[in-house]
Amino acid sequence: MTEPTTPQLTPMPEDWRRALAVVAHPDDLEYGCSAAIAAWTDAGREVAYVLATRGEAGIDTLAPAECAPLREREQRASAAVVGVSTVEFLDHRDGVIEYGPGLRRDIAAAIRRHRPELLITLNHRDTWGGVAWNTPDHVAVGRATLDAAGDAGNRWIFPELTEQGLQPWDGVRWVAVAGSATPTHAADASAGLERAVASLLEHRAYIEALTDEEPETYVRGFLTEVARSVGERFGGTPAVAFELFAR
After folding, report:
1. Phi and psi, residue 87, nearest 5°
2. Cystine design at 35: which of 1, 100, 137, 196 (Cβ 3.0–4.6 Å)?
3. What is the Cα–Cα distance from 217 to 223, expressed in whole angstroms?
């Protein structure tokens, strides 16, 4: 019998100029797709970040009031490494983000402000590939981002946004979900991988609290292995995988 072949991933679309990445916490993008973002900004594309929280509940040894400004600084430094200068925080509470109209409204407002063609978020499903349970924050923000792509273009869902001067934006053409167990597309990570490593290393306080392994060894090993694994379905080229939803 012939063994089934694994479907190859399709290259990400390139006919766009502006992207907005919306995730729950500092470090979510650095673990997920910063190598692709580095390549995109190199090509002259604009990418902005919106984070639902400041990650204040992410380090057990630091109280939230002390942790939040530290993780914000780390996130801004991390974004700068891959060419992203716009980083916004929505100030939802870390660990207890609630999916609902309030979260959708905040994300829709961000979409109207930034007017992206490509919207990026993180795995919104219950598990990571059926192996590990996902966090409620990731699920809520990922799902709300997918919904807010439509909300942003409908003036009647959150009319208060129009009253605030945020005109409807129906220009989101794709929503790309990083960390999906069922990816459809990929972006070449070759040129951006070293900066992805440097970018994740900017989250040093978080990483040092997370693992006893030397930070660079841990970061390089993790990101290199993920890119290599994705590359097996992308012609052997190290890559970042996305599940792409067209609108």
Report:
1. -130, 120
2. 196
3. 10
Task: Looking at 17-118, list the stretches that DSSP marks H as alpha helix, in order from N- to C-terminal side.
Answer: 28-32, 34-42, 64-81, 101-114
How do residues 134-150 score in pLDDT, each as one tens digit?
999 999 999 999 999 99
User: Exposed/middle/buried for 183, CB within 10 Å: 0-12, 13-18, 19+?
Assistant: buried
Helix (H, G, I), strand (E, B) or coil at 16: coil
Give yes or no for residue 1 having a pLDDT over 50.
Answer: no
- pLDDT tens per residue across span 176-191: 999 999 999 999 999 9
Neighbours of 100 (CB within 10 A): 10
Mean pLDDT of 111-117: 98
Q: Positive or negative, the Cα torsion across 86, 144, 155, 245?
A: positive
CA distances in angstroms from 100 to 124, 145, 174, 207, listed in the order given: 14, 11, 22, 31
Contact 26, 206 (CB under 8 A): yes
Hey, what amino acid is at 160? E
Phi, psi of 86 (to 5 degrees): -100, 110
Instruction: In whole angstroms, give the CA distance from residue 93 to residue 108.
Output: 18
Distance, in Å, from the CA atom of 12 to the CA atom of 9, rounded to the nearest integer, reads: 9
pLDDT of 32 reads 79
Specify the pTM.
0.95
Q: Answer yes or no: are the C-beta atoms of 51 and 91 closer than 8 Å.
A: no
Number of other CB atoms surrounding residue 237 within 10 Å: 16
Taking the C-alpha atoms of 146, 149, 155 and 159 in order, what is their torsion angle to the nearest 10 degrees? 60
Dmax (CA) for the chain in angstroms is 64
DSSP-assigned letter for residue 119: E
